[in-house]
């Protein structure tokens, strides 16, 4: 209805009246809705939810940092374990080689 008033205004002098007939009811409706509905309670809920969201975001950020730190430490520990396993294999191979050489040096019993 309101848009038809604006679009039917073909003369420049009718345009302000059409705009007024459209904007005034809109503003009055917004004011009435503001007072009809309990907006202050909703604003409090929005504020509380925003605070909760911020707290959870901070907590999540801290936990993500801890997870990243734990992943780095786990990677370091895995690298250390792999290095130590390689050392153990090398020492076992060296021990086997020395045992073979030792057996070759012992006099044979006949």
Overview of the structural elements:
With 110 residues, the protein is mostly helical. Helix content is 87%, strand content 0%. The chain contains three helices and no strands. The mean pLDDT is 86.
Give the biggest sheet. Answer: none
Number of DSSP helical runs? 3
The count of β-strands is 0
Mean pLDDT: 86
- Helicity level: over 70%
Rg, Å, rounded = 41 Å
How far is the N terminus from the C terminus? Answer: 122 Å
What shape does the CA trace take? rod-shaped
Question: Ranges with pLDDT <50 over ≥5 residues?
Answer: none
Q: What percentage of the residues does DSSP assign to strands (E)? A: under 5%
* Secondary-structure element string: HHH
Kindly name the structural category: mainly alpha
Summary, kept brief:
The chain has helices spanning 2-8, 15-36, 39-105.
Structure keywords:
110 residues, mainly alpha, 0% strand
Task: Outline the fold blueprint.
Blueprint: H1 2-8, H2 15-36, H3 39-105
Helix pairs in contact: 1-2
């Amino acid at each position: 209805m309101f848009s038809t008033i604006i679009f039917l205004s073909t003369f420049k002098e009718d345009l302000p009246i059409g705009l007024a007939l459209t904007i005034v009811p809109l503003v009055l409706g917004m004011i009435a809705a503001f007072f009809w509905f309990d907006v202050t309670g909703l604003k409090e809920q929005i504020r509380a939810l925003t605070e909760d969201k911020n707290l959870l975001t901070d907590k999540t950020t801290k936990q993500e940092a801890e997870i990243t730190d734990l992943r780095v430490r786990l990677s370091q520990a895995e690298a250390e374990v792999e290095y130590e396993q390689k050392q153990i294999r090398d020492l076992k191979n060296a021990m086997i080689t020395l045992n073979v050489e030792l057996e070759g040096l012992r006099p044979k019993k006949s």
